[in-house]
Amino acid sequence: MHELRFGEMTAFEERPHSPYYGSADSTPLFLILLDETERWTGDRALVEDLEGEARAALHWIDAYGDRNRDGYVEYERHMKTGLENQCWKDSWNSILFADGSMSKLPRATCEIQGYVYDAKVRAARLARTFWDDPALAERLEREAAELKARFNRDFWLEDRQAFALAIDGDGRKVDAITSNIGHLLWSGIADPTHAAACVGHLLGEQLFSGWGIRTMAEGEGGYNPIGYHLGTVWPHDNSLIVAGLARYGYREQAARVAMAILEAATYFDGRLPEAFAGYRRDLTSFPVEYPTACSPQAWASGAPLLMLRAMLGLEPIGEHLLVDSALPEQIGWLQILDIRGRWQRTDAFGRGLAAKR
User: Fold this and answer.
1) DSSP state of 268
2) Among the four residues 4, 187, 342, 352, which has the most C-beta atoms within 10 Å?
3) What is the CATH number that goes with domain 1-176?
């Protein structure tokens, strides 16, 4: 349940929020998590026990997520209460055009399409390996391939050499440059021919502050370094981008972003907050605190773990854990001992670029 509230103010309806379920990305992310859990743990029973729920999730994506049958999952609020945006950037003004104007509902944000693509690819593996349903596996693989081709055609902005943030209710491409393009690398939906341009944006001065990648690029009409999703730096957002950069082979860039976030953490007593301001690093000598950021926050606490995985190149392959490190030069030596998984226990080691010279 989203925005769940208790107490006197809620009982007397003085708070604007009442409990509701509003999330267009949780369903494909559930499928991604189910597959990833099995790849790490080898828990066959879990995948078999949740087959019904997984099939229901696949059905929801096609029957309910794609409201207008255009091949994309979009969202629109059905209740008077609750948040208008039901993607991870759930503030009311997060989906803006490059000139700062507001897009219209329903909205199909780019990263959700990537999650759907990844979910169908992964669910195909589960169907073939665990559910004894090769026909479903073949259908999901075909649908994922068709979605990828269609997405790279419909969401690409040739004039900006980037993917659109969303397609809005009027069918217009929301053309602001944002961190969402990094999620497209994490999911694998971005065509390799477009990846280099995306990386150029992500590591360029407009998105990369020096402390991390901003949610919106400096210079866009809605940019605000202390806007909740309009220019702040979110550690969890950056961790997915780091994993995406590594997935497409941009290991040095991934290490650079990860190191920036880890350095920022030292200014927050080692505990990353939900978000911090997107001011340039050469403008301030420290990451500027976002005044109302949650700390601790679950997303932020998980970010360093995914970054460690990406830097060490940890990848479950069958009954083994592959280690292929690419550390920033500031880290001379990194080791994680007794990593538990389907391989029982194993260790991972990595040396920084400076230590290898």
Assistant:
1) G
2) 187
3) 1.50.10.10
Single-letter amino acid, residue 320: H
Q: What DSSP string runs through 100-146?
A: SPBP-SSBEEHHHHHHHHHHHHHHHHHHHHTS--HHHHHHHHHHHHH
Give CA–CA dist 252/271, Å, rounded. Answer: 25
pLDDT tens string 181-202:
999 999 999 999 999 999 999 9
At how many degrees (to 10) do helices 26-41 and 51-60 cross? 150
> Minimal CA–CA distance to 271: which of 283, 258, 261, 281?
261
Q: Which of 274, 288, 167 lies closest to 224, judged by CA? A: 288
Under 8 Å CB-to-CB from 204, ≥6 apart: which residues? 217
Q: Distance between CA 176 and CA 98 in Å, rounded?
A: 4
Residue at 203: amino acid letter: L
Query: In the chain, where are the structural domains located?
Result: 1-176, 195-312, 314-357
CB atoms within 10 A of CB 254: 26
For the question of whether the overall pTM of this predicted structure is more than 0.85, the answer is: yes
